[in-house]
Amino acid sequence: MALDDNDLSVVDAYWRAANYLSVGQIYLMDNPLLRRELVPEDIKPRLLGHWGTTPGLNFCYAHLNRLIKARDLNMMYVMGPGHGGPGAVANAWLEGTYSEVYRDVSRDEAGMRRLFRQFSFPGGIPSHVSAEVPGSIHEGGELGYALTHAFGAALDNPDLVVACVVGDGEAETGPLAASWHSNKFLDPVHDGAVLPILHLNGYKIANPTVLARIPDAELVSLLEGYGYRPILVSGSEPELMHRQMAAALEEAFDEIEQIQDGARRRGDTERPVWPLIVLRSPKGWTGPVEVDGEPVEGTWRSHQVPLSQVRSNEEHRRMLVEWMASYRPEELFDSEGVPVASVRVNAPAGGRRMSANPHANGGLLSRDLVLPDFRGYGLEVAEPGRVVGEATRVLGHWLRDVMHQNPGIFRVMGPDETASNRLSAVLEASDKVWQAQVVESDVHLGPHGRVMEVLSEHLCQGWLEGYLLTGRHGLFNCYEAFVHIVDAMFNQHAKWLKVTRDLSWRRPIPSLNYLLTSHVWRQDHNGFTHQDPGFLDVVMNKPASVVRVYLPPDANTLLSVADHCLRSRDYVNVVVAGKQPGLQYLSEQEAVWHCTRGIGIWEWASTGGGQDPDVVLACAGDVPTLETVAAADLLRQYFPELRVRVVNVVDLMRLLPAGEHPHGLADGEYEALFTTDKPVIFAFHGYPWLIHRLTYRRRGHENLHVRGYKEEGTTTTPFDMVMLNDLDRFHLVMDVIDRLPWLRERAAPVRQRMVDERLAHRAHTREFGQDAESVREWRWPY
Amino acid sequence: MALDDNDLSVVDAYWRAANYLSVGQIYLMDNPLLRRELVPEDIKPRLLGHWGTTPGLNFCYAHLNRLIKARDLNMMYVMGPGHGGPGAVANAWLEGTYSEVYRDVSRDEAGMRRLFRQFSFPGGIPSHVSAEVPGSIHEGGELGYALTHAFGAALDNPDLVVACVVGDGEAETGPLAASWHSNKFLDPVHDGAVLPILHLNGYKIANPTVLARIPDAELVSLLEGYGYRPILVSGSEPELMHRQMAAALEEAFDEIEQIQDGARRRGDTERPVWPLIVLRSPKGWTGPVEVDGEPVEGTWRSHQVPLSQVRSNEEHRRMLVEWMASYRPEELFDSEGVPVASVRVNAPAGGRRMSANPHANGGLLSRDLVLPDFRGYGLEVAEPGRVVGEATRVLGHWLRDVMHQNPGIFRVMGPDETASNRLSAVLEASDKVWQAQVVESDVHLGPHGRVMEVLSEHLCQGWLEGYLLTGRHGLFNCYEAFVHIVDAMFNQHAKWLKVTRDLSWRRPIPSLNYLLTSHVWRQDHNGFTHQDPGFLDVVMNKPASVVRVYLPPDANTLLSVADHCLRSRDYVNVVVAGKQPGLQYLSEQEAVWHCTRGIGIWEWASTGGGQDPDVVLACAGDVPTLETVAAADLLRQYFPELRVRVVNVVDLMRLLPAGEHPHGLADGEYEALFTTDKPVIFAFHGYPWLIHRLTYRRRGHENLHVRGYKEEGTTTTPFDMVMLNDLDRFHLVMDVIDRLPWLRERAAPVRQRMVDERLAHRAHTREFGQDAESVREWRWPY
């Protein structure tokens, strides 16, 4: 359907209204409809917001609305340039959604006044497309993730179209540059469509953008190389632009329909070439052309606030009035300030409004997973410390059945590591999705898979975030060291979750679950670059209301923790668990009890039943637990009368004071476990100071001595790794002796023996290499 | 020069020798030349290493060597697939460099035995292209940064060519996908050339790669879109591949010469279309074709160790012998195990060897910066706390002159933020480099600039790392919150530095200097997503030998710190400093003294000269310092008899125990500042627990109470930001009162007044918005 003159006038009116409302938010405290003279007191004391990108965002929104209505589309809108917050808010208000969600911001003059005033105003709303904005799953403050969020939202939502504006600034980021290839992972049968709109407005804060300054032919070549068919829309004259944009969108949606029809009805199996729109329009379009003698529209000077002195400078104030009047508000809003029918008519109804699309409030649609009882998948552990098993492999079997029983609402992401992390059982339930070429020797690759593997932690994280934000579930399995690649993305997701906690209209979404394996202690083959347990430190900086960290010591505890995580909502759960063969300690039932408590005394490994201890050996993490239990055994042999209590920590948050985290132990409980006056030797998976950070307020903290990773490592044996960091069993025994003055003298020969053991192991390892690992064959004795 | 038969046989022999040596490293403990029967004891107990990528790396190396000799090129080799460590080591040994650097690994049979044995062996060398490998500036364990390192190395090195192998796995990462655009920032006149070799071996660990599974036409389109002219080399038959590769390289280097000639002599100003080679060869090329009935060569199964049971499985052992024999070692090594002349002849001599190129050991070539005396650039500060200034703007003037006086060895990087961070004075000394289209309204953009701006923290960081690793100097200015985007890159660089500290042959390189500005407390306009001071926590996890953190409170201290950082080597220096107008405290000379100590009592802000205090107010960071000084003033007004000591911390590492960091204060010094028994209220720039982590071993730690960012924020006023996090002056006064029992009763009215002040400010802010900031007009009174 071509754009007739009536359509054009409707779309244009809607666009003008959105632009008017955007400018109003940036500048006005009062006098929203300019129905009286604009005086300095009407102007906000500090002008905040990003005008530059906003008219383009509004332009796309207006045109997408037309399409939604014309074709009854189910569409979401992801705004990469999230700085264009005023645009998102303006559209939600125009469509009525804003007033439905925030009753006090009514769709009339009083509401408009409040809408304007609250923007970037203390006690009001932030300047970006934050969680507070209905219809958004994407803040866009930190740039780079728009397209991955859009693809994530489209997965397993066959009827959904996700329109995604990618700014040309954002397009320079690494994550975004890689995201274009997401089209190799989108199944045209079971997934929805993503329509990227690459918005070239030419400038960032203070510089032109790369993609706007290469020839069109080169840009087209790039986008074709990424596997898209670009449709170009370019100009600045509104009427011509409206006609071009309408035609481009018609063309794009015809293609999308054809592609989906081909894949779904005609059985096409070729990877589709999806359409993509390149919209080249001036930065700060329709804003002031020139201010104080400098060009503004179409330059970086319109990035934020084109007129900066409106309160104090009469000429600026006059220009603002002229600018706002250029949208002809008298045609757009009635005497009550309500958008007139000919504006409102451009918006779809109900859940078809992009600002009200339920997918953008994923908790609304989210179903709980059907979780098979994990009891039955675990290892038989009749006695602690005797059986060997691979924790993640065991988990894999359960995940396979989770995958099997939850078609369309559960995905596993991994940067080419799912098999390496020994979760390959999931491939029995689902292929790895792959729309690119397949050759005969490929295994478990297919167009409809729900395991997603690409060598980009950014894509894994971004896809999963998009998937979760639209109400589905998933797990990101990752090498521990390289999850730092997405530190910043984690931060932003945690911030989003924190904000949504205070928004009752946003329904809880499934948690973001990390499984960090191939961890610091078992990168004995890759060495130093692959050893970094510091993601936990990054996570612990985020609010207690949204983060959880688990360190299950064996397979059955991993199962129990994973079950818990997949049931939870609105958290980030970080689970650290090894993939290598390791000792198993707890039966399924014991694992449930232990994980429910999150921390506990292991009486079987303690002497004297762990009562009234002389020393506490605490541990968190599979390798530290092994060394601790082995140290306890050595102590039992050498000093049978010594009362050693072994405490294992699964839920790291239990260490925090009760007032700082909902999982935190009350002081009495903490003291009952750790004592207030006995030495505590804590063997920890990560950097040791994290444990101090969690416990420094506890009584008896001065007795706590933590061993952990202290940035020593290389390609060597696993036991050499713990020795390099003084976390080995022998050193733990030395630590105990050193902290018990009454034992020290008597224990001197044993201490020397420990020193000798370490030297002997070091020498033996240097001589025989990885053959020298007999120490790890150790079993708990009976 | 086409490849004649003699060249072919030389290149092929060299390649076979490198492959032989690579396989030997992965498998053999002994019997390096297979001159006796291979027995299980000759085989390493654990087979580690990545064969898959190695023959391709060796192939490129052999051919580049030929070119270096033929054209007398000055070339470095960056191996993106750093997992192919055996290849890098093999080539360095073949060229003789390895034995020059490591005398005990001689270039003969004894040395070969040691070479093999040490690889991935405890006490030996890591499995990757680590810092221990001569000729490398790039580990390649964490993938994504090869091309940025290569471009960084080429900057300001007009005679250098950096050949850079990009694996098709790595090519899927975000940072790498963005790096291709580095060609828009490479000056053909003053910079060297980068020759990317995109190596499509088709597979990652367990999956095919995206770029290997799109049609050639699409791939070519993509690379052309990135602005390159791809030259394709594809196949598996060695002779044909040698001829193709030789021709491709001749073509590429002819083009590079033409481009450079055009730009340097003919004055061409068009952005050049640089050549790029696409090398499509089988993964695990020349290795076992099939093992145990499964195809191996040309599949992901050859990613690591194609024959995995060589010790125990006789058939595997036989296949290994066959495989190694296929390289015809008897033609390659003489009876002493020395590479024969016809192999050695393929290697260039001296510093022309890529393994010995001095640029790859940047400290060798590095010159100190000529630094103008920063005294003279500072602000006039006659009295503390009276003058207002913008710290980064002041720094900018000094940096301008640093830039001016150090052409070709100093760069400033920023993700489109150099102006926003108020460093724009540097643009008076250098343009922002820009090879893409320039339009009339552009300012400070030019083809020869040494300020680098792109909206990618990854590119800024990677370019700078490459620049530093080759011996030059620089500064990365970044929004504080978004430096988390490069957490993982920082980790890897810090690890590299730590390793080089133990390698006497690697000369110290200039430090990596971060200026984090637009920080958490002054993101009042962008809000919550832009507020994250957690990079400091990431940095503090790295070894004391390589990390430094500075929080200068004002302009003159920032100057002094910056001067110190730009003189230092082998560190990562993190400097956090605000760009907004702020109070100035110290004159230039006082700043020097204060920064030299790194921590000190501010007597002027203390009562009773800071002697024998009742309470210590400590602070680190500009905003916390302002609030602390203001709190001290309030306390002086309300309780003139109270002895308040104000301690300011510039160098965060001073807080650590002396045994844990070279900057750490001795316990006596610490106690002299903080006391052991008086309450310490510490106002900190970052997350508060970091201060506890640094000080938990100190006597009196239980009296320490830290205020900092606790993840509360939005778009609001600066003062509201500190109030939201209880860091404001009023709350600090409350904290003091709450911790002095003898004062508490008497102080109750004052405490209530503080509570009321906070409420009044909150209400006032909600009413008047950013106009309500009069509290920040506060000056230190006299």
UniProtKB/TrEMBL annotation, chains A, B:
Ranges for domain Xylulose 5-phosphate/Fructose 6-phosphate phosphoketolase N-terminal: 4-364
Pfam family, one: XFP_N
Enzyme class, spelled out: lyase
The keyword Translocase belongs to this UniProt entry's keyword annotation: no
Protein name (record): Probable phosphoketolase
Key word Lyase present: yes
Residue ranges of every copy of the Xylulose 5-phosphate/Fructose 6-phosphate phosphoketolase C-terminal domain listed in the record: 579-780
Entries under InterPro entries matching the protein: Phosphoketolase, THDP-binding, Transketo_C/PFOR_II, Xul5P/Fru6P_PKetolase, Xul5P/Fru6P_PKetolase_C, Xul5P/Fru6P_PKetolase_CS, Xul5P/Fru6P_PKetolase_N, Xul5P/Fru6P_PKetolase_ThDP_BS
Annotated source species: Nocardiopsis coralli
Record's keyword terms, sorted: Lyase, Thiamine pyrophosphate
Matches recorded under SUPFAM superfamilies: Thiamin diphosphate-binding fold (THDP-binding) (SSF52518)
Cofactor(s) this protein cannot do without: thiamine diphosphate
EC number(s) reported in the record: 4.1.2.-
UniProt similarity note: Belongs to the XFP family.
